Amino acid sequence: MALEDHRVVITAAGRDFGRTLALQFAGRGAEVHISARTLEAAERVREEIRAQGHEADRVHAYACDLTDPASVQEFAAAVAARADRIDVLVNNGSRYQHGTDLLSASDEDVADTLASGATGTVLATKAFLPLLLKSAEPDIVTMVSGCGETGHHRSDAHAAFYAAKSAQAGFTEILSRRLRDQGVRVISLYPPDFDNHDPLSESWEGAPRTAKDPLTAQSLVDCIFFAIGQPRDCFIKSFHFEQV
Fold it and tell me: What pTM, to 2 d.p., does this model score?
């Protein structure tokens, strides 16, 4: 799927799967607007993308702290100053918190986990919705987690992370219904733990992807490109994965 005509915003793209998404969208020709909590982290990924031959004026880096409403607004305003629309918003940002013991996390950790995953997703979607509505093919993609599924209990993530992911699930569920009449597709992914191979390494192409292997970032990227590549009468609401 070629994406030369797409403008894509990706939150928390400074490392891990956000970086993977930025590199993969850019690799398919999209104009990418990437954020990270620090500008330096976003700029590192921007330079990696440019080093792959992507046009300098089609990859942009921003600082955005998803726990800070003013920072989210500044991010959206900065993108709007460069683009009259966006076609895809990828809500990737969400702080992970480990620990099966509720008492193992500080109050500050709990608040930050909830704010980045739950509040940050709502604020980013709200801030970018006006730009999405100017697109002829707007899509909102949210990386939730298996932890956002009702009854899920297999992860060692902290309960605050479960709460944040459940909030994302509830938000995207109602948003899918309420934005359909405006042509906006809301696509959510609920992956279990997965292997995130470096897209710039040999392991990206050589990663094992059999039924006996863990889910890979490659397959998640394939799911996203499949969903946004469908005709506009096809609303794929979510991807759920077998837990192993």
Answer: 0.95
